[in-house]
Amino acid sequence: MAVHRVMPIIQSDAAQENREFYGLLGFEEVMNHGWIMTLASPSSPTAQVSVMTGDRTAPVTPDMSVEVDDVDAAYAAVREGGAEIVHPLQDEEWGVRRFFVRDPNGRVVNVLSHR
């Protein structure tokens, strides 16, 4: 399994303020669904940060996202390893397949692959 990117998620209702602040550091908006906005570096597109008011289809807001090439293999590995699944593996309408898992520090990780 290969990791494509890792992205922190900031829970906030201040999307515009975050867009402006991270813009000062060179980030540009690359996605905005209203409840989640992703900012990326134009020179290094996998350098990203997301700002989320709350997750639209899950019971909790994740702390970070990890995009992998095979989310089904990742899901099997964390289940076999005994990790706590916080949100089950499912296909989302915005084109990702994902699940949430709790890491040893109590952080919620959104693990995903694009379909």
Automatic annotation (TrEMBL):
Keyword vocabulary terms for this entry: Dioxygenase, Lyase, Oxidoreductase
PROSITE patterns with a match to the protein in the record: VOC
Keyword Oxidoreductase: yes
Gene3D superfamilies: 2,3-Dihydroxybiphenyl 1,2-Dioxygenase, domain 1
VOC domain: residues covered: 2-114
Family matches, as Pfam families: Glyoxalase
GO MF annotation list: dioxygenase activity; lyase activity
SUPFAM superfamilies with a match to the protein in the record: Glyoxalase/Bleomycin resistance protein/Dihydroxybiphenyl dioxygenase (SSF54593)
Protein name listed in UniProt: Catechol 2,3-dioxygenase-like lactoylglutathione lyase family enzyme
The species this protein was found in: Nocardiopsis sinuspersici
